[in-house]
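Design job #97: recover the sequence.
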C-alpha cells in the first residue's frame, strides 16, 4: 500500500474514532430541566424553544416545567419535583428568591448543577446567572421616558413586586428619573402577573385630569404593555406615553401602529439555548466542589453573570424585530 494511501486511511480512522467519541458524550438519558413561571406567556415559550433546540443538537432530553401563572409556591413545587428526578442540571427563573433559594441550595447540595436564568437568586448556591442586565435595561428605559416626556410629567409603573429582575428594572428607571425633579412617580402597581390587573388599573387612571393626569404608563413585564396600550387607544388619549417590555408580537404590532412608543427587548431564546449548553458543560466537566460560592473565587472557571443583551425597539427599528420574530417561528 502506498504511503499516501496509508496516511489517508489513518486520518480517516482517527476522524471516525473522534466522531464516535463525541457522539458518546451525550445521551437521551441526560435530562435537563427549565423551570419558570407564567409559562403561557410568549416570552417563556420562546425561552423554551431555545432550550429545546440546544437539547436537540446535543441529543439530550429537555423538560420544561412550572406554573402558568405568577405563583412562586407552584414554581417551588415544580423545582422540588425536578430535584427528586435527579436530572443532569436545572435552569430556573426565580419568581421569588426568598421562596426558591432554599430549594436551589438543596439541589446543589445533592450534586445537581443549577444556573439561574432571566431572574436571579444571587444569594443562593446556583453557579451563575444568565440573562439581562436588568439595572442597565431600566436605565435605558428611563432615558427614553425622560426624552419623550420632555423632562416632566406623572408616571405609573406596572411591575411584579418581589421578583428580582423587575425590581432591578424599577431601580434603574428610578435612578434615571430621579435626575428630573419634574417627573413624579405616582404609583407602582403590582400586577401579580395578571394582565387584567394592568388593564383595570389603567382604566382607573386614564380618566384622571389636571394635576392628577397620568402622562406615562411604563410596563416592566411582558404582559402589561398591550393592556395599557388598549386602554389608551380606547380613550383616544394620544398625548399619553406607553412603554412596554419584551417583543411579544402584539407589542411589536402596537409599536408599528403607534399605540406603544417603545419596548425594551431581551433575548429569551438565547437565554434558554445558552442555558442548556452551560448546564451540559458543567455536567460533563464538573468542578471539584459544586456547592461553593464561585463569585468570590478569582480563579473560578465560571462567570458571575452572562449578559445576553438588551435593546430599545421603537418605530425606527420595529420592522427588523417583526422580521426576526417571523423567521424564528418557521
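Job complete. Output follows.
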Amino acid at each position: 500500500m502506498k504511503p499516501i494511501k496509508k496516511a489517508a486511511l489513518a486520518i480517516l480512522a482517527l476522524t471516525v474514532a473522534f466522531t464516535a467519541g463525541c457522539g458518546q458524550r451525550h445521551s437521551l438519558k441526560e435530562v435537563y430541566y427549565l423551570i419558570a413561571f407564567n409559562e403561557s406567556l410568549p416570552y417563556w415559550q420562546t425561552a423554551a424553544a431555545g432550550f429545546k433546540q440546544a437539547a436537540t443538537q446535543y441529543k439530550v432530553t429537555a423538560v420544561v416545567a412550572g406554573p402558568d401563572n405568577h405563583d412562586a409556591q407552584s414554581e417551588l413545587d415544580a423545582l422540588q419535583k425536578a430535584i427528586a428526578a435527579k436530572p443532569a442540571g436545572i435552569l430556573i427563573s426565580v419568581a421569588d428568591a426568598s421562596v426558591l433559594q432554599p430549594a436551589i441550595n438543596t439541589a446543589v447540595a445533592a450534586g445537581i448543577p443549577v444556573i439561574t436564568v432571566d431572574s436571579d437568586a444571587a444569594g443562593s448556591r446556583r453557579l451563575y446567572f444568565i440573562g439581562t442586565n436588568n439595572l442597565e435595561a431600566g436605565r435605558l428605559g428611563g432615558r427614553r421616558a425622560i426624552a419623550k416626556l420632555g423632562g416632566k410629567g406623572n408616571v405609573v409603573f406596572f411591575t411584579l413586586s418581589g421578583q428580582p429582575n423587575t425590581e432591578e428594572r424599577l431601580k434603574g428607571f428610578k435612578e434615571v428619573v430621579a435626575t428630573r425633579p419634574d417627573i413624579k412617580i405616582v404609583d407602582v402597581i403590582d400586577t401579580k402577573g395578571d394582565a387584567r390587573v394592568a388593564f383595570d388599573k389603567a382604566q382607573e387612571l386614564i380618566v384622571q385630569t389636571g394635576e392628577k393626569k397620568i402622562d406615562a404608563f411604563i410596563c416592566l413585564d411582558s404582559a402589561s404593555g398591550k393592556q395599557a396600550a388598549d386602554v389608551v387607544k380606547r380613550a383616544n388619549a394620544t398625548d399619553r406615553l406607553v412603554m412596554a417590555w419584551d417583543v411579544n408580537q402584539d407589542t411589536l404590532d402596537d409599536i408599528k401602529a403607534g399605540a406603544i412608543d417603545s419596548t425594551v427587548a431581551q433575548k429569551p431564546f438565547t437565554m434558554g439555548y445558552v442555558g442548556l449548553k452551560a448546564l451540559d458543560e458543567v455536567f460533563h466537566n464538573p468542578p471539584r466542589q459544586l456547592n461553593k460560592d464561585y463569585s468570590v473565587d478569582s480563579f473560578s472557571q465560571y462567570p458571575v453573570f452572562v449578559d445576553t443583551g438588551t435593546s430599545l425597539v421603537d418605530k425606527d427599528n420595529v420592522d427588523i424585530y417583526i422580521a426576526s420574530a417571523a423567521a424564528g417561528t418557521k
